[in-house]
Structure formats: structure tokens, C-alpha cells
Amino acid sequence: MRKGMLEYCILLLLRAEASYANDIIEKLKEAQLLVVEGTIYPLLTRLKNEGLLAYNWIESPRGAPRKYYTLTPKGSEWLVGLNAAWSELSNTVARLKDLKVTIPENENINL
Amino acid sequence: MRKGMLEYCILLLLRAEASYANDIIEKLKEAQLLVVEGTIYPLLTRLKNEGLLAYNWIESPRGAPRKYYTLTPKGSEWLVGLNAAWSELSNTVARLKDLKVTIPENENINL
DNA sequence: TTTTAGTCCTATGTATTGCAAGGTATATAA
DNA sequence: TTATATACCTTGCAATACATAGGACTAAAA
Q1: What integer pLDDT is reported at residue B103 of this predicted model?
Q2: Which of A39, A56, A67, B52 qualifies as a FRET site for A16, CA 20 to 30 Å off?
Q3: Under a CB-based contact definition with an 8 Å cutoff, are residues A13 and B96 in contact?
Q4: Whole-model pTM?
């Protein structure tokens, strides 16, 4: 079910604060979404190639420097669209959850 | 983004009312979710084979009889799990949307 | 100088999802 | 009897998303 949500969640994250890969993994973990390196690096690269993200090299207190990703203007626009899609999906589910049960579930079932 | 949501939406639908394929397509359309035959028949068959759905043959006012699908007890249990997963996902997104913007988005971007 | 920790990356594989296209069967209407 | 409308189904494709596994580079610590 979470399929396809990762991109949205990452853009939401980056809207709030520039972050590098391990950062993002940690923050998503806090938000109850488990991701691993092998998932996130290709995704960040893809989003950068599509022009939705850009990055700054920033020194690490230890080891290799970090790529801090931020939203580009195009990324911000794209996020607006994703927000709309998410709202629509939420509404769809809400509507379906609110349907009244009209017929008992256990009559005349043929397996 | 809607990927993987279809199963959930169909189970929600069937919880409320037994339905056959074209019925389901129509109701999902009303709920703003477009689906076509080639998508739904394999899915219904899969869910039946997994024991989540069962069906009754019911005469059609015209043409071939219809398979009215209903949730099995196992399907109802499964739906409980999906509801939980959906709640968690909603919470995750809500949390990420509520993050405060802490750093401007347009400084020092290297493409 | 070697080890360790942190950071980046790619290639490949797996699984799934949803769709397009084509096919079969039933029943009524012309 | 043929045509039409309704209903079911299967096969195979395309996309994609995520994970696994491996590798390489940098800098500080031992």
C-alpha cells in the first residue's frame, strides 16, 4: 500500500528542511516509514535528474561530504500536484469507509 | 500513488454491499477511482483464491448471470489490517505535512 | 599505517500492479 | 437465426518500485 508514497514523503520532508540520505532515512523512520540505502539513493538520483531536487555538497563532521538535497521550484510545483492527488485519494477512501452496510455478509456463500 | 490502493478500496466497497464486477467499476468511478475490466477481473479472482472473497451467482436482468462478491470472515480480518495500515500511512503523511519549514529553499543550489 | 565510520553509488533481481487485447458464454430482441 | 448487450475470463506486456549486494571514496582515530 505504501508503494509510490515514498517519493511524496521525501518531497514533503525536503520542503521543510534540506537533508542528506541518512538524514532522510532517519526522519522517515521517525514518521514510521522504513527505507534502506539501496532504495533511497536511486530515488534521489532520479528526482534530481527529473529536475525536482537539487543538492549542495556540505562537509561532514566525519568522513566523506554529504549531499544536502532541496526542492527546486519545479519540485515545489510537483509537490502541489502530489498534495492534490493525496487529498483525492484520502477522500476516496473516506467515502468508501463511510458506506453503510446494506447486506449481511454471510448469506449463501459458495466457495 | 494509487498503486496498491485498489485492493483496499474494493474490500471497503464489498464490506458495505455485495457487488459484481461492473457494479464495482461504477462505484469506484463514483468514488473518483477509474478502473477497467482487465484490471478488476484478475484482481477479484486473486482475492477469491486467497480466501478473502466469495461469490454468489445471481441472474442478470439481461445476459449472462453475475458473480456477486462478498467478504469472507478472513476477508473481514484482512480488511481490519488494511484499515490499520491506511491509518498509519495517513498519520505519516500528516506528520510530514505538518513539519515547519526551517530552511529557505533557494539558497546555494548547485544543479 | 591500518582500521573504522560515514558517505556515496550502481547493477541486478524480484515482485507486483495495472492495462490492453482478445476470447467465451448467456439471454433477449430483431 | 442472427445481432446485440451483458457478463465472464486469460494471457502477456509495461512500468515501477523496492530491496539486495557489492563496491568505492574520505577522513579521523587507533
Answers
A1: 55
A2: A39
A3: yes
A4: 0.88
